[in-house]
């Protein structure tokens, strides 16, 4: 992909980069006066007749590509705006192959990812979480596991005419049908937010099968996200021994949840990050708890920090291995009124910005 190149009718208008993009190169594009985000996948590659390799090798690689196509097309078919019935899932407008290479295109969204919501008002926080949970409900109603849920894949878009922010869920590249993930050597995600069963599946634990990776894997990640959003940090665990929360949970060491959380919220998150995926609440249960506006309030609670429960997990055993430590960048979005200022442009599916963004609403 090059600046000025026309790919599938989309003209690349910015220098492509793979910064934060993992196994892809991304840029911005334009078609018919409309702005887009375009992603080029670095793998898999479709083998042509002229490609190197034996006929049998090419057949195997083509089979991988066809499965890749099938998964992306089916996920997008199920969660497209017309089918899902909601505008807060930023889905692909195009997915195609040109030559040996696959591409995905989405609308360019003017919004920003936030590492936490600690500087928002209670009302703003509640709106962000409720819109996020409703997006997750749409996704799960379609039988889809997001597969890479984390703050970087949720954009906050300022509402027109109100000092509120709506959560936009992005990046469904790693999504799959519940109980039907890609093979362990092809599945991708962020280990820091991954569920215990996801981590063990990636490590090819023989006691964990594909059917263990269900909608409940998203709930584990959502529990961690909710804790981070509300108190500004992950639940406590021994970072000297474990590279990610899921490793601690699966080793039988429950996460320590902040005592600043509202008791209802703390109890809910404790269930969301359970080692036993069957013990985690559904997204509908989570939405019901957050109908109470008080659950986003931080501080003033007398209950001390408590560890999340660690029921006996399906399959048994303990996961191991190192993972990312996970830093955080605070984003200031104070709620004092000011004249409307458009949020800075941030593309759907783009990697998270590493600069400090100030949405301070003081004049």
UniProtKB/TrEMBL annotation:
Domain of life: Bacteria
The keyword Nucleotide-binding belongs to this UniProt entry's keyword annotation: yes
Bias kind Gly residues: ranges: 314-326
Spans annotated as Disordered: 308-363
Pfam families (UniProt xref): Pkinase
Gene3D superfamilies referenced in this protein's UniProt entry, alphabetically: Transferase(Phosphotransferase) domain 1
Transmembrane residue ranges: none
Keyword tags: ATP-binding, Kinase, Nucleotide-binding, Serine/threonine-protein kinase, Transferase
MF terms in GO: ATP binding; protein serine/threonine kinase activity
Every Protein kinase domain range: 1-295
PANTHER family, A to Z: SERINE/THREONINE-PROTEIN KINASE
Name of the protein in its database record: Serine/threonine protein kinase
Organism name: Actinoplanes octamycinicus
């Amino acid at each position: 992909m090059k600046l000025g190149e026309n790919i599938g009718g989309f003209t690349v208008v910015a220098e492509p980069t793979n910064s934060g993009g993992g196994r892809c190169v991304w840029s911005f594009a334009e078609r018919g006066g409309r702005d887009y985000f375009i992603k080029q996948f670095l793998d898999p590659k479709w083998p042509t007749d002229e490609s190197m390799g034996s006929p049998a090798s090419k057949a195997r690689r083509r089979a991988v590509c066809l499965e890749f196509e099938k998964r992306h097309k089916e996920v997008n078919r199920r969660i497209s705006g017309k089918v899902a019935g909601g505008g807060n899932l930023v889905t692909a407008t195009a997915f195609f192959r040109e030559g040996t290479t696959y591409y995905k295109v989405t609308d360019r969204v003017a919004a920003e990812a936030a590492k936490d919501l600690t500087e928002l008002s209670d009302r703003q926080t509640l709106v962000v979480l409720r819109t996020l949970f409703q997006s997750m409900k749409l996704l799960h109603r379609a039988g889809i596991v997001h597969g890479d849920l984390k703050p970087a894949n949720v954009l906050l878009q300022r509402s027109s005419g109100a000092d509120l922010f709506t959560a936009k869920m992005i990046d469904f590249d790693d999504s799959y049908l519940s109980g039907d993930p890609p093979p362990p050597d092809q599945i991708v995600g962020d280990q820091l937010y991954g569920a215990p069963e996801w981590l063990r599946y990636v490590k090819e634990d023989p006691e964990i099968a594909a059917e263990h990776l269900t909608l409940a894997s998203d709930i584990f990640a959502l529990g961690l996200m909710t804790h981070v959003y509300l108190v500004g940090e992950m639940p406590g665990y021994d970072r000297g021994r474990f590279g990610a929360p899921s490793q601690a949970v699966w080793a039988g060491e429950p996460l320590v949840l902040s005592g600043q959380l509202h008791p209802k919220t703390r109890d809910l998150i404790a269930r969301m990050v359970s080692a036993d995926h069957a013990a985690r609440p559904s997204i509908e249960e989570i939405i019901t708890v957050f109908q109470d506006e008080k659950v986003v309030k931080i501080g003033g609670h007398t209950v001390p920090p408590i560890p999340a429960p660690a029921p006996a997990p399906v399959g048994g055993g303990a996961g191991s291995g190192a993972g990312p430590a996970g830093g955080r960048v605070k984003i200031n979005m104070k709620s004092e009124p000011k004249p409307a200022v458009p949020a800075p442009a941030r593309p759907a599916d783009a990697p998270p910005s590493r600069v400090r963004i100030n949405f301070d609403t003081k004049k």
